[in-house]
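User: Structure with S-adenosylmethionine, tokens only please.
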Amino acid sequence: MELTGRLAAIAAYVPAGPVVADIGTDHARLPIYLVEKGICPRVLATDLHEKPFQSACRAVSEHGLADRIEVRLGDGLRPLVPGEAGVVVVAGMGGNTIRRILAGGPAVLAGVKSLVLQPMADAGDLRRWLVDNGWRLVEESLVEEDGHLYTIMAAEPGWEEISDPWLLEVGPRLVERCDPLLLKHLERIKSEYQRVLCCLARSRSQAAERKALDLTVKLNRIREVLARCR
Ligand SMILES: C[S@@+](CC[C@H](N)C(=O)[O-])C[C@H]1O[C@@H](n2cnc3c(N)ncnc32)[C@H](O)[C@@H]1O
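Assistant:
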């Protein structure tokens, strides 16, 4: 099984050894890769919907891996029994869906040593949930595929105070180590702030003024980081 850049970057964050649960597995490419490469002894691959569940079952059986990849149908962490998986991967869903999945399974998460997450949007909301709920962001990276930038994060149990909401929005580990794609990531965020600022300029309400001020401060933060990382 060959993986494209996004899935390969997710696989690179999976620690070798423990049983992995891949939540929302769809085509089961990641579990097949992890087992074929000997990174994981066993994977529990789950999906909420019947069609991806069937497609995962088919792919696993075509690769002759049904003894090492168990495909289960169900919502979020519900198909898992506490203690079964040491690593949980949730990729290719919105950040708020990932947050709800994690929040919905505290007993399963209690035995998990590593989370590997790839939100399609709302990464800031997901980071906020992680740091508020006993997870430390260990690593983050950006991957570009088909013109899209994807954020991949690894978290471990632990506490870390990140009180700066802007850092949580942008990615504290990406900023710290000037990720190679950080400039592109920040340029995109900057364009979005500027678009919103243009819309706000048409309003005279106090709420719009407050929001515009907040965005101007954030734009300055982006300029500072761009100057440091260029
Ligand atoms: C876009 S695919 C991502 C597939 C794969 N994880 C990847 O990154 O390439 C999202 C998958 O998540 C599944 N899904 C969505 N919500 C889910 C939930 N609450 N629990 C389990 N699976 C879910 C969908 O059925 C779909 O197969």
